[in-house]
Amino acid sequence: MTKITRRDFIRSAGGVAALGAGLGFPHIALGAARRVVVVGGGVGGCTVAKYLRKLDPSLAVTLIESKTTYTSCFMSNEVLSGERTLESITFNYDGLRRHGVEVVTDMAVGIDPVKKSVTTAGGRNFDYDACVVSPGIGFKWGAIDGYDEAASETITHAWNAGPQTKILRRQLQAMRQGGRVIIVAPPNPFKCPPGPYERASQIAMYCKHHNPRAKIIILDAKDAFSKQGLYVEGWTKLYGYGTGNSMIEWVGAAAGGKVESVDPSTLTLQAEIEEFQGDVVNIIPPQKAGAIAFAADLVDGDWCPVDKRTFESKRHKDIYVLGDASSAAKMPKSAYAANSQAKVAAAAIVARFLGREPGDPTFVNTCYSVVGEDFGISVAAVYTLDAANNSIEEMPNSGGVSPANASPEIRRREVSYAHSWFKNVINDMME
Amino acid sequence: MTKTVRNLLLAVLALAPAMTTAAPSGEALAFTCAGCHGTDGSSVGPSMPSIAGMDPEVFVDAMKDYQADKRNSSIMNRIAKGYTTQQLEDMAWFFARQRLHLLPQKYDAALAARGKILHDKHCEKCHEDGGRPGDAGTLAGQWMPYLQHTMDDFMSGKRDWPRKMKRKVDAAIADDGKQAIPALIHYYASQH
Ligand SMILES: Cc1cc2nc3c(=O)[nH]c(=O)nc-3n(C[C@H](O)[C@H](O)[C@H](O)COP(=O)(O)OP(=O)(O)OC[C@H]3O[C@@H](n4cnc5c(N)ncnc54)[C@H](O)[C@@H]3O)c2cc1C
């Protein structure tokens, strides 16, 4: 058994005790509380707001979110299969209010890094000492000829959960027996690398029971995808993948999977080699950082460069960018990643307010996918900062995907872990 | 540490690529666990154990077992391998200091009553105070699906029994047969 000495305890406890002594009400002597304005009440924004208040209850934290509730993308594929309702993935902001966060329902339209102020569509200004931006993704409309915001009313993206998820679910339910679903998967980088394939799996799970002759075709702009080996294992076992009668078909870029244009009136897609026509078409467009990141001059190309020790913007001081909008390689654009980054940023902001250097960051990512009944898979990594290269690197000899050909018991447990993860991450971000 | 072991470690270090290893605080390390184990280690997800208030030696032993692939895990082995012993100890002390917040679970009162008798007779000596956080793993108020997975692993030989535990579980089964383990699980679930 491990023996932990008294000295070890004092060593590890000492650091926290010293930090604790600095917290509590350090700014009362200085007068007004420090203000942090958070833009975007998704995973990154909620988590940073909660943890800022947890680490330093004297901070005045304001969260600006355009919607009154948050509908998570994670688990939204289970709405498509009918495994859960949209309501079960929709949450309000009362938990954050209980943590003393001021929640403002408004759309941020600009950030002035000199005056240090956020402007909203409602015409209000919110001054800040530090600003955190976690707006998620935006879509590159027009990247696929014929696919724009108006077309998404009939050809969904469903890559921001909510009304879009509902439309796609209804289309699947209304599809004729033996109909064909086409999912267009985007090029890298995009939100939730395993997501399109989990979507195909969940739709297959629904069809297996309700539309057994249906086909699901994934047209992909890539030649490989996240957890591919495990997906193929699951699809083979559950949906006849690899046989002439497979429910799921994946067409990679080399086989002509890249889609060039769409005709929304006939649901016809022109891919590089052939034309595909679907009964239900779902296009996940190429992505970039959310609009406010562009309006606030936080981007370099499509995404926001950050100092990976703190997640402070490389473009403007005292503005931090988290989650999908940030350029955080090698972390994926996932909820777990945004949650992990938010705590690093919260600790850095609190340290800087106290006049201290931010400590060394540490990150984790875990993404579960439910491929079908009793068939869950995951990918996980522990990350460390490579400060010299401003990159986030996986710890060697750790992490990776679920083992191939694991026992049915392990696959079944990973489904229950996926659902438990969902409860814990929602709780950690906003309860 | 023997001289041979020391030299071996030095050799391994010399082979490792030059990377300035970061030294995040125990708190920073522990914060990364919350996505699955809940804020400060109090889980609200039924198949994820709460780790708040856990004994630091039990924590470090568990993580070392995961590192050595000694447990029937799907994911903790992959994650545990990302940490040094020092980092595991720092995390352990963080969790040891956290208050455990438990949620009520549905349990069968009659089974739980039998479970209490079995616990007092066979388990209390190590899992003191009804299995509350102490020198052995926390059982009181722990999630039932997690307890079930754990017992399945012991019973199927996929996880090594801690000292004396097999004898104690065998004795409980001798008392109550097939009902013994469900009774214990329902008892722990009743103790939130
Ligand atoms: C189908 C699908 C499945 C997924 N499954 C998983 C999974 O299993 N595990 C996992 O880890 N991740 C998963 N993800 C990824 C996850 O949803 C995202 O990575 C995560 O939500 C990123 O958090 P964020 O804070 O960057 O952005 P978001 O969570 O998208 O939050 C952004 C918020 O900002 C608000 N906002 C934007 N601009 C403004 C503005 N100007 N003013 C005010 N408010 C604004 C938006 O309304 C939104 O609420 C999945 C994604 C999809 C699409």
| Mean pLDDT across residues of chain B | 90
Q: For the record, what is the CATH homologous superfamily label of the largest domain in chain A? A: FAD/NAD(P)-binding domain
Q: Architecture of the largest domain in chain A in CATH?
A: 3-Layer(bba) Sandwich
Mean of residue pLDDT of chain A?
Answer: 94
What gap, in angstroms, lies between the N and C termini of chain A? 36 Å
CATH H-level superfamily title of the largest domain in chain B? Cytochrome c-like domain
Number of helices of chain B: 11
User: How far is the first residue's CA from the last residue's CA of chain B?
Assistant: 42 Å
What is the count of structural domains of chain B? 2
**Total DSSP E strands of chain A:** 26
Low-confidence stretches of chain B: 12-22
Order of helices and strands of chain B: HHHHHHHHHHH
> Hey, roughly how much beta strand do the residues of chain A contain?
25-35%
* Helix and strand composition category of chain B: mainly alpha
Describe what you observe in this structure:
The complex is a heterodimer of chains A (431) and B (192). Chain A has 431 residues and is an alpha/beta fold. Chain A folds into two domains: 6-136 and 290-430, 3-Layer(bba) Sandwich (FAD/NAD(P)-binding domain); 151-285, FAD/NAD(P)-binding domain. Chain A is 29% helix and 27% strand. In chain A, strands 5-2-1-9-21 form a five-stranded parallel sheet, with helices on one face. Chain A has a four-stranded parallel sheet with strand order 13-12-11-17, covered by helices on one side. In chain A, strands 23, 24, 25 and 26 form a four-stranded antiparallel sheet that branches. Chain A is globular, with a radius of gyration of 23 Å. Mean pLDDT of chain A is 94; it is low at 9-29. Chain B has 192 residues and is mainly alpha-helical. Chain B is globular, with a radius of gyration of 19 Å. The model of chain B is unreliable at 12-22 (pLDDT under 50). Classes of the chains: A alpha/beta (431), B mainly alpha (192). Chains A and B meet through α1, α9, β23, β24 and α10 of A and α2, α3, α4, α5 and α6 of B. Bound molecules: flavin-adenine dinucleotide. The site of flavin-adenine dinucleotide has 37 residues of chain A, from α2, β2, α9 and β23.
